[in-house]
Amino acid sequence: MAMIEFAHVGKRYGGRFEALADLNFNVERGEMVFLTGHSGAGKSSVLRLLMALERPSRGRIAVAGHDITNLHVSHIPFYRRQIGVVYQNHQLLFDRSVFDNVALPLVIQGATPQDARRRVHAALDKIGLLHRERALPIELSGGEQQRVGIARAVVTKPAMLLADEPTGNLDPQLSADIMRLFEDFNRIGTTVLLASHDLALIARLRHRVLKLRDGRLIGDEEAA
Amino acid sequence: MSQKPRRNPQQDTEKPHRPSQGTEKSRRGARSHQITFESRTRAWRRHHGQMAVDSLYRLRRRPLSTLMTMLAIAIAMVLPASLWLALGSAQLLDSNLDDTARMTLYLDPALSESQAMDITDQVRGESDIASTELITAAAGLESFQQRLGMSDALAMMEDNPLPATILVQPRSRDPDAAQALAERLGQIEGVTDARLDMAWLERLRQLSELGRRVVLAFGVLFALGVLLVVGNTIRLAVESRRQEIEVVTLIGATHAFVRRPFLYVGVWYGLGGGILALLLLTLGRRWLSAPIDMLASGFGSHFSLPGIGLGGSALLLICSTMLGLVGAWLAVSRHLAEISPR
């Protein structure tokens, strides 16, 4: 069964600007897929639709077999708990520690403090920042902040990981490290959809690439 | 960096009270964990406790602005509350004005005491009578003397100038029916006059209705004021935590979760404002009580300002807390509606 299904999806803003037009693609369970295109090509729109931040104007989107096109507002939080999202600006809360940032999704889902501590430690260990759990995000480097953002996205073990330009602000070496992390999570079964315009990086990584232009799919290259 | 996939914590043996998780055995890789109803309730309570304390800390971090908000609420609560108390002390709000339709029957002074009793029995036999009370001429004179201290002047009179009277309490509270009854009783032989003294009581009742409405109008206006004060303050708090709200919403927080800390802030504002209002009322009462005591003693009365009392205090605190809660709810809900998907 496909993890993500887009069927004839269109998205218009303000009735005129067409961000996405008749978009069709599937992402299978356990796949790792890059989404590329110039800025304004529709990458962010695709991710925003998948995060249920917006609704499509036309077509149908299904995630893990569930139609999310017209998800009721009260169901959206529970849908979002099933996916992990990594942002370009990592969206950390700067008034609390690394530990508390990573624990946030668990607090929201009502995990016990003991359970949360174990999971947060596991996630921080995975990204190699266990020793910084007491630090405030502001004390970390850009690459470290991004890794904390990843830890927060995976701490609930979501079936699907979305990332919007996760390496946008990082130098090539750090970008490669971050990508390796995503590949690790993909290796243990997580579906990963990653929007990026870093074509050199993408070419090196040999995964399926969906290419967007003006809201349309213009290329779907299988992993080499 | 460790490449080892994390073990699924659902397999841990230290949680035997979560049987539903046993069936979720480690399917490889990502799998969202299940949380039982019981543990969710516990988590819900835990979050409530955390937010109650956390919001208190946030208020304490800005003591001056917190105090000012609470004071604004207190002032808005004190005005209608003191008006209510003032009306209550004039007993205008007392609903014991039920003897509106009480009437007095004046008997022929020539009648003897036993004849007066017969007439009383006859009146009691009429329909629609709740109770009757005969005041003989002698008893009337005695109470008159006692009340006015004019025993000397009255003692100089040869005859008792007062007629015997019968106080009648009709069963019906309807003024028209009472009027009809008074006319009917006035026809009885030996009754010289049946007087229904309800004109001033009627006026008092109208006055009390006016007072009640004024209090209600002020109450509603000032309640709106409290809502605006709390709503505006919470709106600023929401504004300053906009990013946090956005982030927790993105990672699956329900509206209730987002709302919770702000609702507690509203509750604390309301409760604090209510307590300050009680304090102001007590101070005001103490300040006014000395001149009022002097004034009352000049009239030979023991009147003193009524306090708000335990019930009144509780009511005031409940009202102010509820207003704080509702104000916060409105402010946060407006913001949440703005960030819902379109």
TrEMBL record, chain A:
Q: Which GO terms describe its cellular component?
A: plasma membrane
Membrane topology for this entry?
Peripheral membrane protein
Entries under InterPro entries matching the protein = AAA+_ATPase, ABC_transporter-like_ATP-bd, ABC_transporter-like_CS, ABC_transpr_LolD-like, Cell_div_FtsE, P-loop_NTPase
Q: Where in the cell is it found?
A: Cell inner membrane; Cell membrane
Q: Name one Pfam family in it.
A: ABC_tran
| SUPFAM superfamilies per the UniProt record, alphabetical | P-loop containing nucleoside triphosphate hydrolases (SSF52540)
Q: Which residues form the ABC transporter domain?
A: 4-223
Q: What UniProt keywords apply to this chain's record, in alphabetical order?
A: ATP-binding, Cell cycle, Cell division, Cell membrane, Membrane, Nucleotide-binding
Q: Which GO terms describe its biological process?
A: cell division
Domain of life, per UniProt, equals Bacteria
Keyword Acetylation in the entry? The reply is no
One MF term in the entry's GO annotations: ATP binding
Q: Which NCBIfam families match?
A: FtsE
Family note:
Belongs to the ABC transporter superfamily.
Q: Subunit details for this protein?
A: Homodimer. Forms a membrane-associated complex with FtsX.
Job of this protein: Part of the ABC transporter FtsEX involved in cellular division. Important for assembly or stability of the septal ring.
Protein name as annotated: Cell division ATP-binding protein FtsE
Q: Which organism is it from?
A: Kushneria indalinina DSM 14324
Query: Which taxonomic lineage is given here?
Result: Bacteria, Pseudomonadati, Pseudomonadota, Gammaproteobacteria, Oceanospirillales
Gene encoding the protein: ftsE
UniProtKB/TrEMBL annotation, chain B:
User: Domain of life, per the record?
Assistant: Bacteria
Domain ABC3 transporter permease C-terminal, first and last residues per copy? 217-334
Q: Name one GO biological process term.
A: cell division
- Where does the record say this protein resides? Cell inner membrane
Tagged with keyword Transport? no
GO annotation, cellular component aspect:
cell division site; plasma membrane
Record's bilayer topology term: Multi-pass membrane protein
- Which residues does the UniProt record annotate as the domain FtsX extracellular? 102-192
Q: Sorted alphabetically, which Pfam families does this protein's record hold?
A: FtsX, FtsX_ECD
Cite the residue spans of the region called Disordered.
1-41
Q: What is its main location?
A: membrane
Instruction: Identify the keywords attached in UniProt to this record, alphabetized.
Output: Cell cycle, Cell division, Cell inner membrane, Cell membrane, Membrane, Transmembrane, Transmembrane helix
Q: Where are the transmembrane segments?
A: 67-87, 214-234, 262-283, 303-332
Describe the subunit structure. Answer: Forms a membrane-associated complex with FtsE.
Q: Which family is this sequence assigned to?
A: Belongs to the ABC-4 integral membrane protein family. FtsX subfamily.
Function text: Part of the ABC transporter FtsEX involved in cellular division.
**What's this protein's name?**
Cell division protein FtsX
The root-end lineage is: Bacteria, Pseudomonadati, Pseudomonadota, Gammaproteobacteria, Oceanospirillales
